[in-house]
Amino acid sequence: MPEPGTVERLTTIFHEVFDDESIVLRPEMTGEDVASWDSASHIMLIVAIELRFGIKFFTAELDDLKDVGALIELIERKLQRRAAR
Fold first, then answer.
1. CATH of domain 4-84
2. Which of 4, 15, 37, 84 could crosslink 31 through cysteines, CB 3.0-4.6 Å?
3. Is pLDDT above 90 for 32?
4. Distance, CA of 85 to CA of 82 (rounded, Å)
5. Is this model's pTM higher than 0.85 or not?
């Protein structure tokens, strides 16, 4: 179960990047579920997540993501690793 704060922060990022306050994140959500989610907005999304959460993604990690649920899990793993240092 994801941390509520993670989902809230990520929702804010989605609203800002896609300029759409109606987006409600669901674990099974993919780029096909957001009309304006294209390759350029995907890059902006990833950069915004890295900046806001203070984490860094590797390309291989991003290639393995299938949906928003997997993205949330990856963010939380990175936050836990950072906190453990």
1. 1.10.1200.10
2. 37
3. yes
4. 5
5. yes
